[in-house]
Design a protein that fits this description.
Blueprint (H helix, E strand, L loop, with lengths): L11 H14 L4 H22 L2 H17 L10 H23 L8 H5 L9 H18 L4 H12 L4 H8 L3 H18 L9 H7 L1
Helix pairs in contact: 1-2, 2-3, 2-4, 2-7, 3-4, 4-7, 7-9
């Protein structure tokens, strides 16, 4: 059966990304600046959730954009740019996290509270911000207890909204491995996020009333 290319992306992504990519392929660095402005926050955020170090996450995102620039001739314009870039980010972050784990325990740094703020929705009102910050920081702490591969799976599935087949492609692992990483990560997070002794869940408080 003859191989056919996927349909070209459409919508706002096509209108914005393809002109920037075309400039890059012509050697015009202005194209990279446009893509950085569009995807930098998401790239840093994704890296941060895996490496748990704000400065390192910034470095990983910056290097990912440079790597995308160097490899732009390999990019197929008939595919969306965002997943291609995020694959570079996730793989680089996963390597960095494993490297850190190999030489030292992956512990929470003094920047942990500030880094947890990346998980807070800036659209929230002040009345719910404090409660959300506490919840998000608990999630941040729990993510730190996962293996790097589990964190990568969580980021791809729940932050970048990838399907399992897309995760297989981006992590370069078989489906059974991806499913196991997701399952074990969910089980571990469920255990870590259970209320501590003396704490009540919101539902328990309602039932008590």
């Amino acid at each position: 059966m003859a191989h056919t290319d996927p349909p070209a992306p459409d919508g706002p992504e096509l209108a914005f990304d393809l002109p920037a990519i075309a400039r890059l392929k012509q050697g015009n660095i202005d194209g990279l600046e446009a893509l950085v402005q569009r995807y930098q926050v998401e790239a840093v955020h994704a890296a941060l959730l895996i490496v748990r170090d704000p400065a390192l996450a910034q470095d990983i995102a910056q290097e990912a954009f440079l790597q995308a620039y160097r490899k732009i001739d390999q990019f197929n314009e008939r595919r969306p740019f965002r997943p291609w870039l995020m694959r570079i980010v996730i793989n680089a972050a996963l390597k960095a996290a494993r490297r850190r784990q190999r030489f030292s325990a992956l512990e929470e740094s003094g920047d942990g509270r500030r880094a947890a703020e990346w998980l807070i929705d800036p659209a929230l009102g002040p009345e719910s911000l404090a409660e959300t910050a506490e919840t998000r920081e608990r999630i941040w702490q729990a993510l730190g207890r996962l293996a790097p591969s589990q964190r990568a799976a969580v980021v791809l599935r729940y932050f970048l909204d990838e399907t399992e087949s897309e995760m297989v492609r981006d992590l370069n692992r078989p489906l059974t491995t991806v499913k196991w990483w997701l399952y074990s990560a969910r089980q571990r997070l469920r255990t870590l996020l259970q209320p501590k002794d003396g704490e009540k869940t919101e539902q328990q408080e309602v039932d008590h009333e």
